[in-house]
């Protein structure tokens, strides 16, 4: 999971806005951050770590130009080293800078084609390079002296045809404009905004709308599957629906966990979606005849799920854990040991609230189970009478091959353990998962990907491809 942002305006410097917007997307990745702007030449600053580590005042002055793209990275495909920090660029044709969020699943096949047919060799292990070189190779086949906007869309269409997987892409084509497009199944999010300025309209593209709120842009639209928008240098907007699958497969985990609660994706406030998930989850507790005294959330992504559940059960919501906000989300820590340490330092149960109570502890999901087990123990040690562990997500049984750090099957607890075994492992008094049917019922009109719950992948996903992605992830974690 990564975050992307792009700005193309008539006059104002893009870099300060990009970096401020990236701060609002920081929850999507803290392994690396980068910005590239364009003003006659490309200007680049990128490095390992969070935005505050990578960018200093002097960098912002150096990043000149009214157009730019920014990226915050959580490493999945390719290791976490600096070489893989985005954006990337090539100087021919025209000069193209690119950043993406997602994962190209036919990496090996596309890499082979680029090498054998286009004689291009990758510098990194990052799948963005495949998208960039495929796009550049297509563009150089066109008549560059008589360039037309349709050529840009043709090249985006060629990328969509050749690259299977999940990707939202932003690209600056030097002296021409800013391009944004999504994969044919529309798996990863991409939103567009607009702001009136004294010099004319300014446009923004991002993974989530939350950065529009920070930067004063109005949300114009969400991208559908296989859509592309190009803002030319005269600030004209061109858009095409290029190559969409019959059905959309938007990542449902964006609503469960990844996106910020104050973002709006596909005209749905993420917080509101979580309340609905909590209401559905409450029915599962009623079916199991579980009668808790209070509901608490596992901070911070499950607050709204917990509040929806509490409302539906008509019992109080309480804040059972105090959180240390100076440590990042445990899920996006790069290794298991760091994750465990982070959980220990991050959450402290409030004894006076939990002692002697039957508690429903609401989490977004159980992936590896380490966090859940530790939190149940913390609650019991603090005097909780009974702990019922409830999750907004169904059991995560299958690897995600679309750029989320759930690609190693043996790390997914529900992939090889029964519900009863998981209950014993985490040490709770009951385990309540959202049912997949209930989750699906919330998104019938949208069309979502549920592959990590059902094993039904919306793109090509042979056993070989799943195995390759898993192997690559295991190797990159050892780096
Ligand atoms: S497999 Fe799961 S995490 Fe991956 S894109 Fe689909 S819903 Fe999202």
TrEMBL record:
Reactions the enzyme catalyzes: 5-phospho-beta-D-ribosylamine + L-glutamate + diphosphate = 5-phospho-alpha-D-ribose 1-diphosphate + L-glutamine + H2O
Signal peptide: none
CDD domains: PRTases_typeI
Top-rank taxon: Bacteria
Keyword annotations: 4Fe-4S, Glutamine amidotransferase, Glycosyltransferase, Iron, Iron-sulfur, Magnesium, Metal-binding, Purine biosynthesis, Transferase
Binding site for Mg(2+): 301, 363-364
Every Glutamine amidotransferase type-2 domain range: 2-234
Biological role: Catalyzes the formation of phosphoribosylamine from phosphoribosylpyrophosphate (PRPP) and glutamine.
Name by which UniProt lists this protein: Amidophosphoribosyltransferase
Organism name: Candidatus Wallbacteria bacterium GWC2_49_35
């Amino acid at each position: 999971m990564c975050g992307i942002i792009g700005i193309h305006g008539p006059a104002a410097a893009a870099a300060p806005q990009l970096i401020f917007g990236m701060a609002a997307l920081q929850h999507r990745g803290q392994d690396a951050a980068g910005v590239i702007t364009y003003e006659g030449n490309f200007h680049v600053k990128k490095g390992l770590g969070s935005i505050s580590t990578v960018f200093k005042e002097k960098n912002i002055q150096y990043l000149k130009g009214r157009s730019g793209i920014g990226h915050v990275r959580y490493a999945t495909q390719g290791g976490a080293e600096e070489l893989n920090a985005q954006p990337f660029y090539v100087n021919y044709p025209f000069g193209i800078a690119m950043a993406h969020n997602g994962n190209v699943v036919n990496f090996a096949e596309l890499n082979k084609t680029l090498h054998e047919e286009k004689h291009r060799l990758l510098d990194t292990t990052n799948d963005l390079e495949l998208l960039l070189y495929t796009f550049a190779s297509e563009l150089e086949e066109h008549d560059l002296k008589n360039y037309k906007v349709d050529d840009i869309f043709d090249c985006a269409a060629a990328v969509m045809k050749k690259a299977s997987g999940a990707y939202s892409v932003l690209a600056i084509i030097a002296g021409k404009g800013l391009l944004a497009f999504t994969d044919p199944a529309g798996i990863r999010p991409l939103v567009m905004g607009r702001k009136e300025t004294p010099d004319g309209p300014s446009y923004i593209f991002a993974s989530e709308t939350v950065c529009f709120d920070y930067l004063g842009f109005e949300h114009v639209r969400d991208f559908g599957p296989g859509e592309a928008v190009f803002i030319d240098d005269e600030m004209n907007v061109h858009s095409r629906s290029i190559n969409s699958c019959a059905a959309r497969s938007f990542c449902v985990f964006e609503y469960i966990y990844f996106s910020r609660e104050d973002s709006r994706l596909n005209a749905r406030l993420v917080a509101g979606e979580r309340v609905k998930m909590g209401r559905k989850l409450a029915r599962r507790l009623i079916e199991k005849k579980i009668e808790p005294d209070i509901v608490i959330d596992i901070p911070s992504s499950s607050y709204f799920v917990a509040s929806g559940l509490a409302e539906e059960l008509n019992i109080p919501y309480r804040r059972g854990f105090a959180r240390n906000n100076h440590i990042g989300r445990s899920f996006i820590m790069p290794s298991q040991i760091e994750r465990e340490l982070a959980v220990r330092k991050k959450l402290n149960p409030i004894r006076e609230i939990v002692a002697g109570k039957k508690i429903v502890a609401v989490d977004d999901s159980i992936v590896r189970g380490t966090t859940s087990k530790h939190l149940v123990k913390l609650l019991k040690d603090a005097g909780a009478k009974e702990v019922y562990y409830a999750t907004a997500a169904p059991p995560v049984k299958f690897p995600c091959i679309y750029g989320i750090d759930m690609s190693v099957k043996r790390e997914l607890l529900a992939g090889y353990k029964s519900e009863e075994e998981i209950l014993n492992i985490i040490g709770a008094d009951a385990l309540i998962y959202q049912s997949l049917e209930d989750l699906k019922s919330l998104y019938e009109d949208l069309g979502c990907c549920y592959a990590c719950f059902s094993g039904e992948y919306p793109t090509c996903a042979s056993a070989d491809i799943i195995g390759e992605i898993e192997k690559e992830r295991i190797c990159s974690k050892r780096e």
